[in-house]
Design a protein that fits this description.
By secondary structure, the protein is an alpha+beta fold. The protein is about 20% helix and about 20% strand. The chain has 2 helices and 5 strands; from the N terminus they run αβββαββ. The longest helix has 16 residues. About 25% of the residues are buried.
């Protein structure tokens, strides 16, 4: 997508601090962190929301979860605890329409989250 912020990160048109990368996903530090550890995990292929991932790419979701586990280990929050968030559409607070997971950790999380 030409004007997608996260597609520009994938294409290296926008600089980011990359934590992990493979052929399918990119994980990088959020520029406006909401916790001491705040990593975004995005697929390199553009999907606007979780609802847009076709059935034939459903394995991407499991892959993104595996990457989230690895990122939590890399950042040292796996054993203490971390949260994975994916907002979908306006009422959830989605502001960038490129599927992404937030991995948050490094402090006590509150419940309910919203």
């Amino acid at each position: 997508m030409k004007n997608c912020l996260f597609c520009k990160v994938v294409e290296r048109e926008i600089a980011s601090r990359i934590v992990f990368e493979d052929d399918r996903v990119l994980a990088f530090d959020d520029i406006d962190p909401k916790a001491p550890v705040h990593i975004l995990i995005i697929p390199k292929k553009h999907y606007a929301t979780l609802l847009d991932v076709p059935e034939e790419d459903s394995d991407l979701m499991w892959h993104m979860l595996k990457v989230a586990r690895g990122v939590a280990r890399i950042k040292g929050v796996a054993e203490r605890g971390f949260r994975i968030v994916s907002n979908c559409n306006p009422e959830s607070g989605q502001s960038v329409y490129h599927l992404h997971f937030h991995v948050l950790g490094g402090r006590q999380m509150q419940w309910p989250p919203g």
